[in-house]
Design brief:
This protein is mostly helical. The chain is built from seven helices and no strands.
């Protein structure tokens, strides 16, 4: 009889420990932030290579010079919005109830998506083969604004759920990782060489 009681107590203990660990540990994957950063940065060399091909074909270096300047301006807009987005999403989670946080995050996610769409339209238009006749092929980008923002939203919604189970100091420390300098985009001058 004692063996069965001991077995039941042991099983209950294991179950409770497993549940406690599940509730206490934030099962949030912020890898989508790093992936987004990499995808944004990867667009710059592709566009510059395309501009270089056009400049070589047309024998006009101003195409490359002016194109790089215009791309730098668009990248700068995106760089600023990326930094604001990460801060705003963390603030939505920290300063609001779950319902208000979700609404706040949806707003900022839509704003980022619109910025990504503008950037994607710009680089896509710039690299179309019909922009300059005689330059072969379109440049392909791994940059889908809807897909990227959906993954980012999922990460932040998971973070909001996890943060809801934390104390205020833990929440702040947990969300600070999304504001990390490692997730800032590289400066345009560094990528556009």
């Amino acid at each position: 009889m004692k063996r069965y009681n001991l077995l039941i107590v042991l099983l209950l203990l294991i179950f409770n420990v497993a549940n406690a660990q599940k509730k206490a540990s934030p099962a949030v994957d912020f890898s989508s932030l790093q992936q987004t950063k990499a995808k944004i940065e990867a667009t710059v060399p592709l566009v510059i290579q395309h501009l270089n091909n056009i400049a070589t074909k047309e024998e006009d270096t101003s195409i490359l010079t002016n194109g790089k300047a215009a791309l730098g301006k668009e990248y700068g807009i995106l760089e600023s919005e990326w930094r604001l987005y990460r801060g705003n999403m963390a603030n939505c989670i920290l300063g609001n109830s779950t319902k208000k946080a979700k609404k706040c995050m949806e707003y900022h996610n839509q704003y980022l998506k619109n910025t990504f769409i503008n950037y994607n339209n710009y680089i896509t238009h710039l690299t179309k083969k019909n922009g300059y006749l005689g330059v072969e092929g379109d440049t392909k980008f791994d940059f889908n604004p809807s897909e990227i923002t959906t993954k980012l939203a999922d990460s932040y919604y998971s973070a909001a759920d996890a943060a809801g189970r934390m104390k205020s100091l833990q929440k702040t420390e947990f969300l600070e990782q999304t504001r990390s300098k490692e997730l800032d985009l590289k400066p345009y001058a560094e990528i556009a060489q």
